[in-house]
Specification:
Length: 154
Amino acid sequence: MRKKENLINISIETAEFGKEYQKEDKNEIVIKKYDNLKSAVDEVDYVKHKRMIIYPNPKWVSFDDLWGSGFGAMFEMAHKNPEQLYVVIIQNYNLSPCECWSMPIVNLKMQYTDKLPYTEHIGFPHNLWLYFIESNIEDISFPISEYFNSIFMV
């Protein structure tokens, strides 16, 4: 069963089927890249979670844009509720210059910093899974650097 809740004009879907989220002992940040939305959703549908799909605006140029899109709310909720799994799917992330708006996440993943702007929480919550789906519209998509690609889990 799925239900939706609104949080400051942000839609969060709750998947209440599947097994309970079990925190793994691995100290790993889950950031993955998928070719399509179905693959990302299929990956996590086996476990109960709260999920948000974010659609970057081509005008996004700073981390402010990502944080205000609902990512910030999910980040804070994940820190406050470590037993709940949160999944953020950023679909068509390269329709805007992703190296600009995602750089604080890249820096945190690469351990160049210990926290993101706008939060007092140290680190990236392990119960927040971040999935990126690349746009396949070549004429309007921004190129992705190897540095940016280095954050994704294989």
